[in-house]
Amino acid sequence: MLEELALTGSAILIAMARVSGLIIATPIFSSPNLPGVFKIGIILSLSFILYPLTNISTTVLSMSLLSFTGLLFKEILSGLVLGALTFLFFSIFQTAGQLIDVPMGFGVVNFLDPNMGGQVPLMGRFHFTLTVVMFLMLNGHHIIIRALAESYRLIPVGEFILTDKTIEQYLYWFGETFYISVQLALPVIAAMLLVDVGLGLLNRAVPQINVFIVGFPAKIAIGMALVALGLPFYLVLVNKLFAANGKLIEALFGIMKTLR
Predict the structure, then answer these.
(1) Is 142 within 8 Å of 49 (Cβ atoms)?
(2) String of DSSP letters for 34-69
(3) Residue 73 in 3-state DSSP?
(4) Model confidence at 118: pLDDT above 60
(5) Scanning 56, 100, 118, 240, which has the fewest C-beta atoms within 10 Å of its C-beta?
């Protein structure tokens, strides 16, 4: 009886390590705006639900303290890897917003965001917040929990190993996410370039007009209008990334297959 109780406690602790790593690195769950008690509640709840999937044997009970600490460290790392990849997908919209901010003239309007731990661009924060709302509407948090549950099948407890294929996967998805960011921001960047050319021609034709005074509100108005017009395409992109069969779940399962 005592051995069974100790085994259950060890399984919960091991599950808690992987869940904690994922929660720490995932943008929504790691937000400083969420109370610490709420985060602890999520970690404990998921750990109690998922601990049967750990499938640990009684050999865990005979491990030394140092070996068991090493096992917990591996589990935390496996959760961090999954959370970091999820963060990479959220950074698509933060990066796109930052690329949009500079040509629109919002490059100097950065503000302190406790969620990101530093200064963030205005449009980047707008896109990120909208993404979080859409992510929750699409039940994206269910996808993360599903990936976490499946991770115990693809990455058994104690078998976490970073391989060359893992690095290749990360580099691939880093390139893909940055490419999507540029695609998302390119229409506004191109429009701002045309506005700059038009203002330059206007300055040559009518030198008395101060193009700096005229151009600043014009670029903001045109940029905001383009962002508003692009929202339907933006929502389609969010759905493509975070839906039940989207790119995020493909990336998570792809990276898990390389971690053993």
Answers:
(1) no
(2) S-HHHHHHHHHHHHHHHGGGG---GGGGGS-HHHHH
(3) helix
(4) no
(5) 118
